[in-house]
Amino acid sequence: MLFDEIQKANMDALRNHDKVARSILSIVYGKFKNESINQGLNAKSLPDGDCLNIIKKTIKELDEEYEGYMKVNRLESAEEIKKQKEIISVYLPKMMSEDEIRAEIEKLEDKKIPSVMKHFKANFNGLCDMGLVSKIAKEYN
Questions:
Q1: Residue 55 sits in the same domain as residue 109
Q2: Does 73 lie in the same domain as 23?
Q3: Which pairs count as long-range contacts for 90-98, CB under 8 Å and 24+ apart, including other chains?
Q4: Quick one: CA torsion of 128, 134, 139, 141, rounded to 10 degrees?
Q5: What are the C-alpha distances in Å from 35 to residues 52, 55, 77, 81, 90?
Q6: Residue 97 gets which letter from DSSP?
Q7: pLDDT (tens digit, 9 = 90+) per residue, 77-89?
């Protein structure tokens, strides 16, 4: 599970005295734990789809932070943010392509947008861009 992978990577970063990796992995691990508590789950039982959504949100936050540092010309801090983004991006799976999304929609009996979105959220949460799925689903209606 992704939860365990992040925890192990966090411990490895601690052992290796890698401050950059340790800082971002600790943040992500903390977010995982908080979300599992919010959902009333045992520690380490957060589904991978939820973990992926947390990682994506964290990457988006890092992008915003990076832009902020670039605006004020703090290049050293911006470079650290860039490294952190690279560290956690490794845990993101390859996203579904447009063709793969279309093929999956073709398999469905009910191609109405709510049904398509529900199917993708249930089966491919974190593995596809839901905005792209919506756009493609609209073509079938």
A1: no
A2: yes
A3: 91/2, 91/5, 91/6, 91/52, 91/55, 92/52, 92/55, 92/56, 92/59, 93/52, 93/126, 93/127, 95/127, 95/128, 95/129, 96/124, 96/127, 96/128, 96/129, 98/132, 98/136
A4: 130
A5: 12, 12, 28, 23, 21
A6: P
A7: 999 999 999 999 9
Q: How many residues does the chain have?
A: 141
pLDDT-derived band at 43 (thresholds 50, 70, 90) equals low
What is the reported pTM?
A: 0.72
Q: Which domain does 66 fall in, by range?
A: 2-89
Type of residue found at 100: E
What amino acid occupies position 123? N
Domain CATH number, residue 26: 1.10.1510.10
pLDDT at 60 over 70: yes
> What average pLDDT does the segment 50-67 reach?
92
